Predict the 3D structure of the following.
Amino acid sequence: MSQEQLNQPQLQPTSAIDTPSRQPLDNWFEYPVRAQPHHTDYAGIVWHGSYLTWMEEARVECLRSIGIEFADLVALGCDLPVVDLSVRYHNSLQLGVAAVVKTRMAEVTGVRINWDYTIESLDRQQLYVTAKVTLVAVDRERGKIMRQLPASVKNVLSKLSASIKN
């Protein structure tokens, strides 16, 4: 292996997204969805990108449930772009089927915020997707990664996770 290859960041093995992080199940925020025609391909199978949209909607609603409006983050000059995304598709979701997107903040380390996701049937018998997403706080005005989360954001996020570290 060359020195350049050794310096490249190592990707998580795909098995790491087969099951979400080990945290108590009561930390999950649940967001119901239903596969509509615009979510599917011509065969009535949910298009892979629709799952990503549902995950983002669930994350935004989870934050709203604890008092963080995404518009408020923007007003603070804090943007949270996705910098890492791992998705495992287990089963296809069909047109008209209802499901639940479950999300939880797995960990906050500095300005990195890690989220876990599962998308499953309402009766919890069918697993459709598991995923992990990492967000990083960026100063909107300067376009640079922040050195630390704004104190107000950090305090509110602590409601979701006891794993906030500097």
User: Anything to note?
Assistant: The radius of gyration is 17 Å.
